[in-house]
Amino acid sequence: MKVKILEFVEGAQKATGLTVIIDVFRAFSVTCYAYDAGAKQIIATGSADDAFLLKAKISNSVLVGERDEKKIMGFDFGNSPTEIIQTDLTNKTVIHTTTAGTNGLVNAKNADLLLTGSLVNATAIIHYIKDLNPENVSLVAMGYKATHSVEEDLLCAEIIADGLSGKKNNYDTRISDLQNTSGKRFFDPENIDFSPPSDFFLCTTLDKFNFVLRAIARADGNISLIRIDI
Fold first, then answer.
1. Is the backbone peptide bond immediately before 26 cis, with ω within 30 degrees of 0?
2. How many domains does the chain have?
3. What is the pLDDT of residue 72?
4. CATH number of the domain residue 43 falls in
5. What gap in Å lies between CA 8 and CA 99, rounded to an integer?
6. Residue 165 contacts residue 109 (beta carbons within 8 Å)
7. Which of 8, 14, 60, 156 is surrounded by the most beta carbons within 10 Å?
8. Is 135 exposed, middle or buried (0-12, 13-18, 19+ CB in 10 A)?
9. Separation CA 190–CA 85 (nearest Å)
10. Tens place of pLDDT for every residue, the chain, 230 residues?
11. Strand-pair partners of 138
């Protein structure tokens, strides 16, 4: 099994084989929490306009997402796991768009099979990939706004790569230290309304969920995220 680590939208476009699009803060942590909160299905879109079009067509749906970290005007929720865990999404369709994560999904057109990646289900991802045993694996760290490298996405890629190779490490200290690097923004009082400290801890709870989210292209050009329990 050959594993390569890529970054940003460019990396998503170059990704081949089984591909994991990683967005720890916060897109693909949010989608895991949304399924845990009872969502019937999740659809990822590359733009807010596409999200609004979908909402007009799908009954009992909610809009979740951000631009510049903040909730998009007219959306029901921001891209915040703190908001999601306080919400009952039972039987609702979640329509999700973010600056980095969902754009990575829609740009990974050369992938043979596509997964989302986050710390909250990292080991489930490892087990799922090992069971499939693909020849090539691409791990795409989407970064901040899909333009700047960030520690949490690269660490998540490293954890998955280590797990696939059988390498064992303790990542607790490095995960905790994220609050002093790329996670500092969650502890800035100016951001508390849209990026509260609780988001940091919810996104960095390693292996909270034992399922993966497989991304499957829809006929309308958007992406369905299908929950697969491990």
1. yes
2. 1
3. 98
4. 3.90.1560.10
5. 11
6. no
7. 156
8. exposed
9. 22
10. 999 999 999 999 999 999 999 999 999 999 999 999 999 999 999 999 999 999 999 999 999 999 999 999 999 999 999 999 999 999 999 999 999 999 999 999 999 999 999 999 999 999 999 999 999 999 999 999 999 999 999 999 999 999 999 998 999 999 999 999 999 999 999 999 999 999 999 999 999 999 999 999 999 999 999 999 99
11. 4, 19
DSSP code, position 184 = G
- Cα–Cα nearest to 114, from 220, 12, 11: 12
Q: What is the distance between the alpha carbons of residues 77 and 97, in angstroms, rounded to a whole number?
A: 11
Q: How many residues does the chain have?
A: 230
Residues whose CB falls within 8 Å of the CB of residue 177, separated by 6 or more in sequence, listed in order:
none
CA separation for the pair 107, 193 (Å, rounded): 30
Supply the mean pLDDT for the chain: 97
Rg of the chain taking only CA atoms, in angstroms = 16
**Tokens 């299908």, residue located:** 226
Cα(229)–Cα(98) distance, rounded to whole angstroms? Answer: 24
| Continuous H helices in 37-182 | 48-57, 81-85, 101-107, 122-132, 151-165, 172-176
Provide the residue type at 166 as one letter: G
pTM: 0.97
